[in-house]
Amino acid sequence: VVPVIGVNQEVNLTAVLLPLNLNLTVFYWWIGHSLQPLLSLENSVTTRFADTGDVRVTVQAACGSSVLQDSRVIRVLDQFHIVPLRFSKDLDAYNPNIPEWREDVGLEVTRLLSKETSIPEELLVTVVKPGLPTVADLYVLLPPPRPTRKRSLLSDKRLVAIQQVLKAQRISFFLRGGIRVLVALRDVDTGFQRLGRGSGYWAVVVLFVVGLFAVGAFILY
Predict the structure, then answer these.
(1) Which terminus of the chain has a smaller tally of CB atoms within 10 A, N or C?
(2) Which residue windows are transmembrane per the record (predicted)?
(3) pLDDT at residue 188 above 70?
């Protein structure tokens, strides 16, 4: 599961078992403070979180007499930025496509970005996505609450600093054999994505427009 999610944003929780034989396996999901687990025969469920804060998700896979359990903590926020990242093509040849490897690469990219931009590491989360080509999303979290104008200005400065170091090719790391992997923006045209309260704002706009059309149609009739 992605470590950061927006309020009321749909999130997919997936349990990966090795070997990939899910026959007769029952999954028990404990989400948040719920004492009653959600049962499923599939290895994934979809849910939403209505409130901000840290939410612990625990999954237990039972197959015969074998039981495995794991848990993750998800940070539910009302506002944050997503910066799409890409890597040099050389990284694809060394990508084993396992969660542990992706987490290690994400931690290294976060450390390098924090060092180059002076942004605290706890406000940066790099998530390397499964599959090929190897790409990642950088979650830029907002600092502790401040007056709206100051926080917005500080957030803009942080995003500009991230964009500058990425364009200057200052974020890179080395693989075994001395192969240098460069980290860059994945889609320069798209720029930075922003998630959070915006979804609710657009829902209100859509409802307003639909209502306006309905009233206009009624008047014309």
Answers:
(1) C
(2) 12-31, 201-220
(3) no
